[in-house]
Amino acid sequence: MTRKIIATIVFTACFFIISGSFFIQNSIAGTAGEIDAGADAALDEFKQNIKGGDEFLQTAKGVLVFRRVYEAGLLIGGEYGEGALRINGKTVDYYNLIAGSIGFQIGAQAKTIILVFMQEQALTDFRTSSGWKVGADGSVALITIGRGEIVDSTTIKDSIVAFVFDNKGLMFNISLEGAKFSKIQR
C-alpha cells in the first residue's frame, strides 16, 4: 500500500473512533442516581454469583463499578461506559471508560466491569491522575474464576484486579489494555 492509502485509512479510523465515542458518550450519559443504581445492581450480581465475593469486596480499599460498558466494532471498535468509585460502600467519584481498537471485529455487546483496588497507593495514584490508562499508568489483573472456585483476598496479590461479566456470566479472554478512565462530573 502506498503511504497515501495508509494515511487515509488511519485518518478515517480516527474520525470514526472519535465521532463514535462522542455519539455513544452523549447518548448513554447517566445521572448520578442512574450510575449509582447500576453500580448497586452490579455489586449485588457480583456478590450473588461469585463465592466469597462479599468478603473479598470488604477487604478492598476502593471499588470502581461500571454496570454497562458498551462495545461495538466493524473493523474499528470502541467502548464507552460510566461508573461509580466507591470507598467504604459510598460513592466518592464518577468515571468514564473509553477504549478504541483496530482489527478484525464485528458486532456489539454490553458488559459489566468491576475494578477492585486492593492497595491504598494504587487507589491514590488512580484518583490523583488526570486520566488513568491501563498499561501506561498501571496494570490491572483480570481475575478468571471457574465454577465452584472462591475468590479470596489472601491469594490475590495484585494491587488492582478486574472482573468482567456479560449477560452469560464471568467473561474470559478479555483485555482492558489501553482503556482510559477519566473523572466526570455528575
Secondary structure tally: strands? 7
Helix fraction, binned, reads 25-40%
Helix/sheet category: alpha+beta
Shape: globular
What gyration radius follows from the Cα positions, in whole Å? 17 Å
Mean pLDDT: 80
Question: How would you spell out the order of helices and strands?
Answer: HHHEEHEEEEE
User: Which residues sit in consecutive blocks of at least 5 with pLDDT less than 50?
Assistant: 21-27
Number of domains: 1
Largest sheet: 7 strands, mixed
How many individual helices?
A: 4
Question: How far apart, in Å, are the first and last alpha carbons?
Answer: 46 Å
Query: Strand share of the residues?
Result: 35-45%
Describe the structure.
The protein is α+β, with helices and mostly antiparallel strands and 186 residues long. The chain has one domain. The chain is built from four helices and seven strands; from the N terminus they run αααββαβββββ. It has helices at residues 3-28, 32-49, 53-58, 120-128, and strands spanning 62-87, 90-117, 132-133, 141-142, 160-166, 169-170, 180-184. Strands 1, 2, 3, 4, 5, 6 and 7 form a seven-stranded mixed sheet that branches.
